[in-house]
Amino acid sequence: MNAQQPLPLLPVQPEYDTWRGHRIATYRAGNGQPMLLVHSINAAASAFEMRGPFTQLQSDYTMHAFDLLGYGNSDRPARVYQAEDYIDQTVAQLERIGSPTVLIASSLGAAYAIAAAARVPDLVSALVLACPVGISQLSTPPGAFNWGLYRLLDGPLGLWVFRQLTSERSMRFFLARQAYNDPATFTPETMAGFYAPAQIPGSEHAPVCFVSGLLTCDIAAVYPQLRMPILVIWGRQATTTPLRKADEFVQMNSRARLEVIDRASMLVQDERPAEFARLVRAFLSNPG
Fold it and tell me: What is the number of alpha carbons within 13 Å of residue 27 lying toward its C-beta?
């Protein structure tokens, strides 16, 4: 995929790092304390979903973002993808930045961010988690059933399933009904930003692993041990990750505080970017 022009996922051109021989697309803008953005996992994920924080916060912070392997402008090798890969990639980005960084992450990406923060706590000054999972959702370690499902989908059947999930009709339904709450925030630009990455050859490999259950991440043991300030931000209308799940993240770590944004669903950071950024700034000015 790297021979073609990179997708315009964020308002800067990607640069590239190498992770285990594969190219990882990275993005940087702004000045100030560093922030690292970690996107979620779905059939058409990429750093595009972090465009709100990336743009809104760059006047005060140095924004870093990247596409996880298999997504966006990063390489898409045919391989088995597992949670450990994405935790390690997040750690690698923190080490590349090299100084205490505010880690902002969404959904399953937030679970990887939590695991990364537990491994290199000196490189994470604060955590901001948008509708995170990893305690009672998407936390069960892969078992025999998951590996059997992966073997079934690792081929033409998996490609067919992926194409059904990433058809315009399916993506429009998922994004408009689950990822976003306010129809006004789901624009043609939003649809295009998710649709285009899913059309690149090799796009099916990582999502097939996700659908098979190989990308789950259990952070219940490490999350309570984190000592950096934690802000949990939830979209009140989120259905896939309902608001009641926020209690797990607040109760399991006394350093965590919760903020809820109205008229927003699972991708709260993209649906209400100005309010999301306001909450992040307020939190960092008084992390407690």
Answer: 29
Six token digits for residue 268? 């709260």
For residue 122, what are the CA distances in angstroms to 101, 116, 127? Answer: 9, 11, 12
Q: Over 80: is that where the pLDDT of 14 sits?
A: yes
- Residue range 155-214, pLDDT digits in tens: 999 999 999 999 999 999 999 989 999 998 999 999 999 999 999 999 999 999 999 999
Q: What is the bridge-based pairing of β-strands 124-130 and 101-106?
A: parallel
Residue 171 C-beta-side C-alpha neighbours within 13 Å: 22
d(CA 190, CA 186) in angstroms, rounded, equals 6
Tell me the whole-structure pTM to 2 decimals: 0.96
Q: Output the six-digit token pair for 119.
A: 């491994």
Judge residue 39's burial from the number of C-beta atoms within 10 Å of its C-beta, 0-12 exposed, 13-18 middle, 19 or more buried. Answer: buried
Q: How far apart are CA 91 and CA 120, in angstroms?
A: 7
User: What does the block give as tokens for 218?
Assistant: 């259990």
Rounded to the nearest 10 degrees, the angle between the axes of helix 83-97 and helix 107-119 is 60
| pLDDT of res. 236 | 98
- Give the C-alpha separation, 231 to 255, whole Å: 8
A 10 A CB-CB count for 42 gives 27
CA 222 centroid distance within chain: 19
Do residues 50 and 270 lie in contact, with contact meaning Cβ atoms separated by under 8 Å?
Answer: yes
Residue-wise pLDDT for 270-282, tens only, equals 999 999 999 999 9
Per the document, the length of the chain is: 288
Q: Is the pLDDT of residue 59 over 70?
A: yes
Q: At what angle do helices 205-212 and 156-165 cross, to 10 degrees?
A: 90
Contact 231, 128 (CB under 8 A): yes
Residue 277: partners with Cβ closer than 8 Å, 6 or more residues away: 52, 53, 56, 57
